[in-house]
Amino acid sequence: MLRRIKYDDRQHLVYARGRALPPDVIAAWMAEFARHSPSRRPLTVLDLGSGTGRFSPALADTFGGPVYGVEPSARMRQVAADLTAHPSVSYLQGTAEKIPCPATGATWPCSTC
Known about the structure:
Number of helices: 4
Helix content: 25-40%
Distance between the termini: 36 Å
Strand content: 15-25%
Radius of gyration: 15 Å
């Protein structure tokens, strides 16, 4: 059985540095995401499992709309807010099973999301 990683204990301290990508690699990811996305802009983006926000600012710049980085680890969200702040990015507490819906405060799936 796999051990559960506790990002709030220690991982948050080194995660961003250990998973950093050079600008050309981020650009390649954004080009690939754009290739599979609608061409209209702005687009609202959900960065599910956003961690320390490695992709969130680039997603906001690429797609022009708000980006919601959803991450269960409080300390990973704090690192994201400290290191990758962007006016169009919000880091929210949530999980894949309970995705927050910023418009209503409910969790997805909900009737208005």
